[in-house]
Amino acid sequence: MKVVINDTNIGLNLNIKAIKRYIELIGKECYFYKFTEDPFICADQFKYELVDNIEDASIIITKNLGKIINGLIPREFCFKYYSMNIDRTDPILIQVVEELGEEVNDCYHTSSITIKEIPDNVSWEILNIMQLGVQREIIALK
Fold first, then answer.
1. For residue 102, which of 112, 92, 88, 110 has the smallest C-alpha distance?
2. I need a surface site. Which of 9, 17, 33, 129 has the fewest CB within 10 A?
3. Left, alpha or beta for 12 (phi > 0: left; psi -120 to 50: alpha)?
4. Alpha-carbon torsion (75, 77, 82, 87), positive or negative
5. Considering the entire predicted model, what is its pTM?
6. Residue 88 — φ and ψ, nearest 5°?
């Protein structure tokens, strides 16, 4: 069985190209938005603008919410929240990681998304650990 984990961080932290590919493979539309107000500086003033080019995008959502979005994007349309619940054995996720290789990692170079092989008859879980000051995921056999 193939399992996707993050060797150098926790969570999927997929980059925008990987998110786009995953959404395409599950049969949904992708819409690209960029921050026009920096939410990290002024958290109460989230503002996004629809863009045509993935290279200009800060976020990908699965519904066109118009040219300008003021405020928070509903979670059901935001892949970042959805991705937290993707089954790490999801064949589509595995396909994306195999197709894109290192390109699946986030743009901040904080991820190292990899596929691990586990025997089918073994019980396992993903654990978050701290190792040498770095959080990472490991597969623990039960």
1. 112
2. 129
3. alpha
4. positive
5. 0.82
6. -70, -5
Across the chain, what does the average pLDDT equal? 86
Would you state the structure tokens that stand for residue 88, as one six-digit string?
A: 């790490």
Q: List pLDDT tens digits, range 82-134.
A: 566 789 999 999 999 999 999 998 776 778 899 999 999 999 999 988 887 77
Q: Is 93 helix (H, G, I), strand (E, B) or coil?
A: helix
The closest alpha carbon to 14, from 117, 99, 140, 138, belongs to 99
Give yes or no for a contact between 99 and 91, defined as CB atoms under 8 angstroms apart. no
Q: What are phi and psi of 82, to 5 degrees?
A: -60, -40
- Per DSSP, the three-state class of 119 is coil
Residue 19, Cβ density class (10 Å: 0-12 exposed, 13-18 middle, ≥19 buried)? buried
